[in-house]
């Protein structure tokens, strides 16, 4: 993990706008595993999650639950939502995380990856999932 993960407040580069919710998963020793800033816009059927930390076996279920909640909030009766994930502060990204992304695209959810970290890009490329995703180097729209 990088040093900035030990800070109790968001590090530089993570913006917290009005309307965002914050949640985090900590290890048994109190270290931050994964944090998510989430905002759902039901009018446009979009959700944005800005993530910080590691998406691995320890945080996979927690991450899946946060994604499911955002999808449920943003989904209308007529169509699946667009989910925007900002991955620039992801320090570790497992193949299981790539599997979560592949599963979402198979359900018809539009998944847009913003500013993927080097490790996230590499795992998504090696797993063959990257071509199924929309990649945007800009910050998420919400």
TrEMBL record:
Transmembrane annotation, as ranges: 90-113
Annotated source species:
Cryptosporangium japonicum
**SUPFAM superfamilies, per this entry?**
SpoIIaa-like (SSF52091)
Q: Would you tell me the protein name for this molecule?
A: STAS domain-containing protein
Residue limits of the STAS domain?
A: 36-142
Query: What are the record keywords, sorted?
Result: Membrane, Transmembrane, Transmembrane helix
**Transmembrane is among the record's keywords:** yes
